[in-house]
Amino acid sequence: MGSETQKVVIIDDEPTTLLLLESVVESLVKVVTVSQSVQAFESVKLHRPDLVVLDISMPKMSGFEVCKQIKVCPDTASIPVMFVTSHSDIENERIALS
């Protein structure tokens, strides 16, 4: 990447979580936040981030569904996705790792 500023897209429907995650990394990378899951994939396509931080539980479309959209598109498939959630659930872990 050279001296290029890295970019992270953070997707979460909770404003407090978005602010918290953004404040943790904003001094290190350029941050784009998205609060609606239905806009998430378009934002990832537009910004082409180095990493996507994605909440699992969101209204209208789950983080898993957003991740599928990202991974099936050739333009975005290689972008790493990191899931975040406030729930401790073995099934969510299994799905996230598959």
List the main descriptive attributes of the protein structure presented here.
alpha/beta, Rossmann fold, 98 residues
If you had to describe this structure to a student in words, what would you say it looks like?
Helices cover 41% and strands 19% of the residues. Strand 3 (51-55), helix 3 and strand 4 (81-84) form a beta-alpha-beta unit. The chain is globular and about 35 Å long. It has helices spanning 15-25, 37-47, 63-72, 90-97, and strands spanning 7-11, 30-34, 51-55, 81-84. It has a 4-stranded parallel sheet, with helices on both faces. Helix 2 (37-47) packs parallel to helix 3 (63-72). The protein has a single domain, classed as Rossmann fold (3-Layer(aba) Sandwich). It contains 4 helices and 4 strands; from the N terminus they run E-H-E-H-E-H-E-H. The protein is an alpha/beta fold and 98 residues long.
- Could you name the CATH homologous superfamily? Response regulator
Q: In terms of per-residue confidence, which ranges show pLDDT below 50 for 5 or more consecutive residues?
A: none
Could you give the count of β-strands? 4
Order of helices and strands: EHEHEHEH
- Per DSSP, the total helix count is 4
The CATH topology is given as Rossmann fold
Structural class: alpha/beta
What form results from the Cα inertia axes? globular
Compute the CA-based radius of gyration: 13 Å
Helix-residue proportion: 40-55%
Total number of domains: 1
Termini, distance in Å?
Answer: 28 Å
Biggest sheet, spatial arrangement of strands: 2-1-3-4
Major β-sheet, in short? 4 strands, parallel
User: For the residues shown, what is the average pLDDT?
Assistant: 89
- The CATH class, by name, is Alpha Beta
Tell me the fraction of residues in β-strands, as a range: 15-25%
Oligomeric organization of the protein chains:
single chain
In the CATH hierarchy, what is the architecture at level 2? 3-Layer(aba) Sandwich
Keywords: Phosphoprotein
GO biological process, one term: phosphorelay signal transduction system
Protein name: Response regulator
Pfam families: Response_reg
